[in-house]
Sequence to fold (383 residues):
Amino acid sequence: MKINILICVSAVAISVTFISCSSSKKITASGTPTLKEAYKNDFLIGSALNSQQIEEKDSSAARLVPEQFSAATPENIMKAEIIHPQWANYNFDLADKMIAYGKKHNILINGHTLIWHSQLPAYARNIKDVDSFKTFFNNHITTIASRYNGKIYSWDVVNEALNEDGTMRKSIFLDKLGDDFVTEAFRLAQKAAPDTKLYYNDYNIEQPKKRAGAITLIKKIQAAGVRIDGVGIQGHWHLNKIPLKEIEESIQEFSALGIKVMFTELDIEVLKRDFQGADVSQRVASNPELNPYVNGLPDSVQQQLANDYESLFKLFLKYKDKVTRVTFWGVADGNSWLNGWPVRGRTNYPLLFDRQYKPKPAYYKVIGLKTNSGSGESAKKPF
Ligand code: G3I
Fold:
């Protein structure tokens, strides 16, 4: 199945064309494989897309995304507050466009996300009685998952249900439905979307305590006879602190449960932040000292970023039989949520493409692992 999909998504031209924003001049890199070409026999390479990109209103991304990526995840538009804004009203407009975009460009779409405590619409957050909440929960999953059954490749069925110590996160889902809400979400998704892969997705689940909690959760779903196909390790990590040992252990332990492993929201923080993860409720006050690279990234940091990405992709390749997708959380640095979190208004550099959508040294390192020299040097010249 995976092989068929990879063959299908890789049937594209090998040459790369980038637009230089300053000159609008095309720079062609003929002969150099793109990310999805380079990794076509290993795993899917994905990106989160914002609504401008889904609607192809961002011309640089419109060119770059189909060249570079074989998978995509909507960054926001399938979250409950957007797709299900009122009790009886759904807004499928952008989600339908996402599906059409994937079909047009042979990009596999991962739905994100059916059940998440964040970005819930106000009416849902304010439901008081358990029966009404159950009705919302059932309707939400069933309506959305069945609409896209057979059209969408996979769903993050439940997102971020765990605390750092591996216990269940306090949320309206836990409060109204109890511990079993995760299993019940998968049961409903399985029924509504029998042709769609179903995943659990979370950040920091490579860390031992939270990983143990995720393993307990997954075993519980399996013990109930409910299908779960994979786990998404989000992968919001920090420069020079990539937890390679924990990531490797996690790939081994999760895949031992008989499920696939994905890295679903990859980015590397280069700015100061004292905590790891992606809890959107954590905020830090703005301060110029926390935003030191407004005019560009120093070479030493750029190089460290490249080395970190190279180490990560080496590890992913070592486990390519278990890892089925690596998705970056954003196309290019200017799109990244890390420009606004946890400190608003910073200039961050967490991805493989810069603000002009041009490939960074980290890109060449990642491509270089799949070219002859293995160092990235041979991929440098054509660009
Ligand atoms: O939609 C409103 C818009 O109407 C308004 O004008 C604008 C003004 O700020 O805000 C818009 O909403 C923003 C939304 O993104 C869409 O752009 C929210 O303020 C902003 O908080 C929200 O941030 C998203 C965040 O999830 C919120 O939950 C990020 O873009 C998105 O990258 C991030 O993604 C999450 C994953 O879903 C789950 N894992 C962690 C990851 C990073 O936080």
Remarks:
- The radius of gyration is 20 Å.
- Residues 75-76, 118-119, 159, 234, 265, 278, 280, 337 surround G3I (CB under 6 Å).
